[in-house]
## 1
Amino acid sequence: MSESAPIRVLPQALVARIAAGEVITRPRAVVKELIDNAIDAGATDIVVDSQWGGFQQIDVHDNGSGIRAADTPLALTRHATSKLASLADLPSIATLGFRGEALASIAAVADIEIRTQAHSETVGTKLTSVDGVEACVPSVRRQGTSVTVRRLFDAFPVRREIADRKAESRAIRTLIAQLALSRPDIAFSLDSEGRRLVSTGGGSLRKAFAEINGVDALPFLLDLGPLELRDARVSGIISAPTATAHRSRRDGIVLSVNGRLCGVADIQRAIERAYAEVLPRNRFPHVVLAIAVPPERVDVNIHPAKEQVALLDGKELAERLEAEIRALLGRTAHLIAERHSLALEVGSLPGLRAAEAGTPYGAGEWGARTVEPGSLPRLRVVGHIDDTLIVCESDVGTLLIDQHRAHERVIYERLLEHESVDLPVPVVLALPRSILTMLDTKADDLRGTGWDWEDIGANQLFVRACPTGLAPDDLLPIAERFTSESSHTILAATACHAAIRKRRPLSPDAAVELLEALTRTATPTTCPHGQPIAVNLDRAFLERQFGWR
Ligand code: ADP
Ligand code: MG
C-alpha cells in the first residue's frame, strides 16, 4: 500500500473555483443570477442575449440603479453585497440576492465584463475579470448595468463535453418566460443566435401571458383570488380544463413568493391534485400565482440556488388553494352558464345492473325536451346518435354529449359526497386472496367512498354497506380496476364501472334525467379521467366548416 498524501490547505483560487462549480452549475444559473441582480436594482427593462445555449456568451442588460464607481471594484468579491448588512436583516430579506456570491462565482468559472453607471454619476465603470485577473477602468454608458459572460466552464472540460446546447437554450427560454410571468410589470426580452424568443412589454399579467403563450389561450384563463389566509395573500390566473389549454410539461405552473420565482412543493402538489380529475393523465395546466407573505414566514435557504422555498403554514395555504381551484374549475369550464341547483332527485336511472346485462335504457319519442340550466346552459334535448351521443341545442351551440362520460361524472361526484346505503343483511363475498390484499391496502379510501366490510377469513368478506347506486358484488370489478394508489383513481374507476356504457339505447326520459344530473355537477364538461364529456358545435365552428362567412 502506498503512503497516503499529506493533508494540505487548498489555495484560495482553487477553493473558489470548486465552490463556484456548485453554485453555477449551468448557463441557466448564470442567466438567473444576473436577472435577479437586475431586478434587485429596480430595472423595468431587462434584455438577455444568449449564444450557443449560453456556453459561448451571455449578455444581460438592465436599466436599473447601476453600481456606484466607488463600489464597483468590490462587485466580484465573494461575500460582498449591498443587500444584507447584518445578521438581524436575515429573517426579513426582501431582495432576491443577499449572499454576495453570484458574481464572484461566475468570475471563478468564466470571464466576465461589467459595464455600469449609477444614476447619480456622470462616469461609470468597466470591470473585467479575464482568467481570474481583474481590471477596472472608467467608462461611460447610460444608467444601468450590462454584464457579459464568456468562456463559461473553460476550466471544466467535462462539463463542456456533456453540454447539451439545445436543452440549455430551452431551459433559458423557459426561465425567462417564467420570470416574465412572475414579474409582468417588467419588460423582458430574450434573443438567441439573432432570433427573438421572448418579448414582453411590461404591464398586466394577462398581457404578459398573451405575449408569451399567444392569445389563443386567453379566453380560457380564470382569475384566482385574491385569496387570504391570515397574513398570506395569493392571486393570479389559472387555465380552464379545455383541450387547448393544457401542456405536457409542468413549466406552465409558475409560482412566485414575494416576487421571487420559486417552487413551493406543497402548493405545486395542491395544484396538481385540483386538476387531476379534469385533465388527462400527465397533462398540466397553466397556473401563474403570486404569493405574498411576510418575509419572516418564508425560508429561502432550503435550496442553494434559492429556487425552492418553504412557507410557514404552507400546508394550510395549499389546502385552501386546492379548494379554491376546484371551485373555480367547476364553476367555469368552457361551456358554462351560471350555476344554480335544481330540486330534482336522481337515482332512478338504471345503474350498473342494466349496463352490464345489456338491458336497454328504455325507448320513446325524441322531441324538444328541455333541461333547465345548472352548470350547463339550458339544453333542448333533440336526439340520440349511435346509441352513444345525446344531441342538444343550446344558446351556445349544438352539444354532443357522451352518455358514458356524463354518467361517470354524475356518479363520481355522488361518490365524493360519500352517499352510501347500509345493507339490511350483510352480503358474503368470496374473493381471490390477491384482491383481498389489495382491498386491505386501499381500505381507507374505499370506506371513504361508502363501502364497509369485514374480513371473515377463508377468503370471504361480509359486505355491510356500499355506495348508493352500486351493489355489493361490484366490489370485485372495482378492485380489479385499481391501477394506482390515489383515492381519486379508485373513485374514477368506480364511476367508470358503474356508468352506462357507450352503444346502449337510452330513452328520452333517461337522457333528460342524466342531463339534469349532469348540469348539477360541479364540473360538467370533463369526466373524472379528464376527457371531454361534451363537444360544442358552435356557430363559429359551423361557419368555418360550411364556409358560410
Ligand atoms: P448579491 O446579489 O447576493 O448581493 P452578487 O454577487 O449577485 O451578490 O452581486 C454583488 C453586488 O453587486 C450586489 O449586492 C449589487 O450591489 C451589485 N450588483 C450586481 N449586479 C447589479 C446590477 N445589475 N445592478 C446594480 N447592482 C448590481
Ligand atoms: Mg445576486
Note: The chain has a mean pLDDT of 83.
## 2
Amino acid sequence: MRDQIIHLLKHHEGYFSGEEISRKLNISRSGIWKNIEELRKEGYSIDAATQKGYRLLNVPDKMLAREIKDGLLTSVIGQDILHYDSISSTMEKAFALAVDGQKEGTVVCAETQTKGKGRMGRNWNSPSGKGIYVSIILRPRLSPAVVSQLTLLSAAAVCAAIRQATGLEVTIKWPNDILFGKKKIAGILTEISAEMDCVRFVIVGIGINVNTAPTQLPEHATSLKSIASKKISRVKVLQAVLNTFETEYREFTDKGFKPVIKKWKELSSTLGSRVCLSDQNGAIQGEAVDLDEFGGLMIKQDNGIVIKRMSGDVIHV
Ligand code: BTN
C-alpha cells in the first residue's frame, strides 16, 4: 500500500486529496494516515494540509527497493530487492540467500558495509549513504571454467550504465575496474558456488563511488560527484546498471560471449596501452594488444613475445 501511495503522490502535481487516494486505492482515510506516518518514518517528507490533502516534498536519499523499482525496465534483475541500512558485506548476504534458494536476479544493497570486500582479499571502503554497494544473484547455465566471462560482462554493463546515467566517459581497465582517466570509480567482484562441471550460482558484487568525498577514498580513486562537480542520484545510476545488466545478460545467454567481448573492447582503455600485470608469478610489462576468446589479456612484451593472462592486477603505465 505504501508503494502505491508514494507512486500516486510522485506522479501528481500539488496536493492529492485524501478522498481521492481513498477511492483510488480502496483504503480508509485513517488507513492512508497510518501509511503516511510510516512513510515519514522511512524518511519521506510529506505535507498534509486540511481541505487539500497530501503532497510529497522529498524522497529520502536512500537506495530503497521502492525507489529503485520505480522506473526499472527489467523483468528478472531487481524484481526482488533487499535493502539494508548497514550490513557486513552484500556479498555474504547474497551468498547466504542463494544457498537458501533465493531466485536469480535478486539484488542485495546496503547504505554501508562494515566489511566490504574487494578483489584479491582487499577491503572495499563503503561510507554510509555515499556509494552504491550491491550484489546480484545469478544462476547461469555455465561451466565453472568460463565464469570469468560474467566478470567482463559485468564490467561492460556497469561502464555503459555509468556513461548513460551521467554522460561521463568512464572506461574499463582489464578485467573489471571502471576508471575515469587513471582513477578508479567502480569495482566488481565475482564469487561462485559450483560443482566440478556446473555452476550453482554466481554473485556479482558492484561497488560504485557515487557521492563519496575525496577524503573517504584512497589516492588512486575518485567519485562521480567529484568529476561532475554535482551530487548524483544513486538510485538513477543503479537503475541504469540493473537495466543494462539485464540486457547484456540476456544477449549473453542467447548469443554467447562474442557480443560481450565486442562491447568490452569498445569501452576499454587497456587495449593499446602499455601495462604492467602482476600475479603470483611476478610482474610482466608490455603493450596490451588483445583479448582472447575467453577474456584473457594478451600482452606483447618488448621482445615481441605475446603472453596471455587470465587473472592479475593491471596498471596502465
Ligand atoms: C574491487 O576490488 O575492485 C571489487 C570491489 C567490489 C565491491 C563491491 S561493493 C558491493 C559488494 N559487496 C562487497 O563486499 N564487495 C562488493
Note: The radius of gyration is 22 Å.
